[in-house]
Amino acid sequence: MSSLNREELICLFDIDGTLTVPRQRILPTTEEFLLTKVKPRATIGLVGGSDLSKIAEQMGGEDVITKFDYVFAENGLVAFKNGQLLGKMSIREHVGEEKLQTFINYALGYMSKLILPIKRGNFIEFRDGLINVCPVGRSCSQAERDQFAAYDKEHLIRENFVKDLKRQFPDLGLVFSIGGQISIDVFPIGWDKTYSLNFVGKDGFKEIHFFGDKTAPGGNDHEIYEDSRTIGHTVLSPDDTIAQLKELINL
C-alpha cells in the first residue's frame, strides 16, 4: 500500500495481457477504473511495443494520449506526455539500411521454411523504433492468433527463432524479444521498455511501478520489470492488474 500522492507515484502499464486481452480493445470497466479510480491517486502511463495507431485502437481512440499522462509507443521510442510528443527515435538511422536489409532478408528466409498450422501475410512490420517479426503473419484473425499462440507454447517456434537470430547476428547490437501472442520485437540494445524511464525519471517520482505479463527473461516486459528504478508487478490478466492496483493505492 502506497501513501504517496499523484505527483510522487507513477504506474506504468504494458497493454496486451495487462490492460487488455491480447490485441483486443480495453473493456469499458477497466478503462473507467484506471481513469476515475487510479488516475486521481497516481500518474498513469502506457508502455507498449506496438505503434501508436495500434495502441489507440486497443485503448479506445486517438485521445489515449490525453487520457493517460504518458503514452510510450514502441517501447518509449515514440513518447508522449500530456498529449504532446516528447521524442521519436529511428531504428533505420541508428542501425543503417544495409544491416537492416541483411537481417530482414535472413528473417524472411527463416520463416519461409517454417511449417505451421496456418500462415497469413505481413511477416515483417517496420516501425519507427523497432522491427516486428511475426512467423504466422500479422494479418491473421484473432482465432488464428490464438491457434498459433497455443502451437507456439508447445513447439517453441518463437523461442527457437530467437536463439537462431542471436547465433546469426551476435554483433549487430540488436535485442530479440518475444512479445504478445505471435511476434518478436527487434530493436537496438537499450531500446527496450526501459527507454521510457529516460522520460519519467526526470519528473521527480518517488516510486515508479510497472505492471506487465511478459516479465520472465526473454519477454518484452522483463528489462523494465527488473530495472532498479522500478517496482515490478507480474500480472496474469487485466482483472489481476486491477486487483493489484486496488491493493497498491488502497481502494
TrEMBL record:
Gene3D superfamilies for the chain: 3.30.1240.20, HAD superfamily/HAD-like
Cofactor(s) for this UniProt protein: Mg(2+)
GO CC annotations on file: cytosol
Compartment list: Cytoplasm
Pathway: Nucleotide-sugar biosynthesis; GDP-alpha-D-mannose biosynthesis; alpha-D-mannose 1-phosphate from D-fructose 6-phosphate: step 2/2
EC number(s) per entry: 5.4.2.8
Residues reported to bind Mg(2+) 2: 230
Residue positions binding Mg(2+) 1: 14, 16, 213, 225, 227
CDD domains assigned: HAD_PMM (cd02585)
Alphabetized UniProt keyword annotations: Cytoplasm, Isomerase, Magnesium, Metal-binding
GO molecular function: metal ion binding; phosphomannomutase activity
Biological processes per GO annotation: GDP-mannose biosynthetic process; mannose metabolic process; protein N-linked glycosylation
SUPFAM superfamilies the record matches: HAD-like
Family named by the database record: Belongs to the eukaryotic PMM family.
PANTHER family noted in UniProt: PHOSPHOMANNOMUTASE
Stated role: Involved in the synthesis of the GDP-mannose and dolichol-phosphate-mannose required for a number of critical mannosyl transfer reactions.
NCBIfam families hit by this protein: HAD-SF-IIB
Protein name as annotated: Phosphomannomutase
UniProt organism field: Ceriodaphnia reticulata
Lineage of the organism: Eukaryota, Metazoa, Ecdysozoa, Arthropoda, Crustacea
